[in-house]
Design goal:
The protein is of the alpha+beta class. 21% of the residues lie in helices and 19% in strands. The protein binds calcium ion (2 copies).
Length: 402
């Protein structure tokens, strides 16, 4: 199955046909109205497929979708008003739907039609359900199991395709015996031949990688897309390499590493514009702040703790004798800040408690429970003696004893 259909609820055509029989029976029992409810958008299904920003509302009951050029009627047939809350939604068979489109002169246009499969798919909001529709653009889309006609005939001619806006799934139902809802579209001539855009996203967390270490770049393409593989490449081969198919980065040398991702197009989709992410290779971490060749708690450790307390020169090195080289201190602190290397516990923030306390205790030789006593290390990546010592020794040349 292509990624294009992943967010929908796959259902066999046979199953949908069976469902349609049940639906037809249920519809016969329903005298009035359609249950409508606010859409549920769980927020973990990626970016919106048909966000409000893509639509221009003409203020006359029509909207134009900028990505397709199609003009849609905001309300289902039978409904009207700014929130589509007036009237009763119309249900009709397939022929009735086509005739309704031909007979419509809504907003002064005479070329309304029933959307084909591809056209209506472009407004299904795959990140929401009940209904799978952007209600800011298409208010009062029924959230129950009611079906919306397309003009597309199934390979079995007595059936045509419908959308179940409950979950955005599509299926085929009988043209003559099934009565369904109608949403009209116009314009966008040649939409079937349009090459659709693909949009890539890329990220890397954390934003740093030690020399020689590996880490995975994450990327995805908005759905729907061509289904072609995402291919990674390095834009800084001297700093890092990357496995084209997996995005696994290997850090080579200190500096900024930039990884790009591409996705080829096909007959329906344009090649995606390349996107990239940068990460810092090497921690630029040197705890020998005064540059005397040793990391000492009374000088380097004191200045590091004061730095995390927000102190700046000359108070930063007050009382330290001989006075350290101011330019060197500033440069090392700047490197440490840039790489966030003083975030010893790895929770994302370099702060006094617990990072400066951990550093001071490590420099004092505390290990095991004494190192961690009284500290809250929830959310920490590094929370034991061995891991912390290894981190400072391998990334910052701290030379700490185990
Ligand atoms: Ca030192
Ligand atoms: Ca921290």
């Amino acid at each position: 199955m292509s990624a294009r259909h992943c967010p929908t609820r796959p259902a066999s055509t046979r199953g949908l046909r069976a469902l349609s029989v049940l639906l037809a029976a249920s519809l016969a029992l329903l005298a009035v109205g359609v249950t409508r409810a606010a859409a549920t958008c769980p927020g973990n299904l990626g970016p919106a497929h048909a966000p409000t920003s893509q639509f221009v509302d003409h203020g006359n009951g029509t909207v134009t979708h900028s990505t397709t050029g199609l003009m849609w009627k905001k309300c289902y047939e039978g409904l009207s008003g700014a929130s589509c809350s007036s009237g009763t939604v119309a249900q009709m068979d397939w022929a009735g739907a086509l005739q309704t489109a031909v007979g419509s002169s809504f907003a002064g246009y005479s070329d309304w039609r029933v959307p084909n499969k591809k056209e209506i798919e472009s407004i299904i909001e795959f990140t929401c359900h009940t209904p799978a529709s952007n209600e800011a653009v298409f208010p009062n889309t029924p959230g129950s199991v009611f079906q919306t006609w397309t003009s597309s005939t199934d390979e079995w001619a007595p059936h045509a395709w419908v959308v179940y806006f409950t979950y955005g799934a599509m299926g085929a139902v009988a043209k003559s015996t099934s009565t369904n809802l109608v949403r009209l579209v116009r314009g966008g001539a040649g939409y079937d031949a349009l090459i659709l855009p693909q949009t890539l996203h890329i990220s890397f967390a954390p934003s740093t990688l030690a020399v020689g270490a590996t880490g995975g770049v994450a990327a995805y393409s908005d759905v729907p897309n061509s289904g072609n593989p995402l291919l990674f490449s390095t834009l800084t081969p001297a700093k890092c390499s990357v496995t084209a198919s997996t995005g696994l980065v290997t850090a080579i040398a200190a500096g900024m590493c930039t990884i790009a991702v591409n996705q080829a197009g096909n007959s329906a989709y344009a090649a995606a514009p390349q996107v990239s992410v940068s990460l810092l290779v090497g921690y630029n971490c040197n705890l020998d702040i005064d540059g005397d060749g040793v990391v000492n708690v009374g000088t380097d450790g004191l200045m590091l703790a004061r730095h995390l307390l927000g102190m700046t020169p000359p108070t930063l090195y007050g009382g330290i004798s001989p006075p350290p080289n101011a330019a060197l201190v500033t440069s090392r602190m700047s490197d440490l800040d840039f790489s966030n290397a003083l975030d010893l516990d790895g929770n994302g923030f370099a702060v006094v408690n617990p990072d400066a306390i951990l550093l001071t205790r490590l420099l004092l030789g505390l290990r095991g429970p004494a190192l961690l006593a009284g500290l809250n290390l929830s959310g920490a990546l590094r929370s034991d003696s061995t891991t912390l010592v290894n981190y400072l020794n391998s990334n910052c040349g701290a030379g700490l004893a185990p």
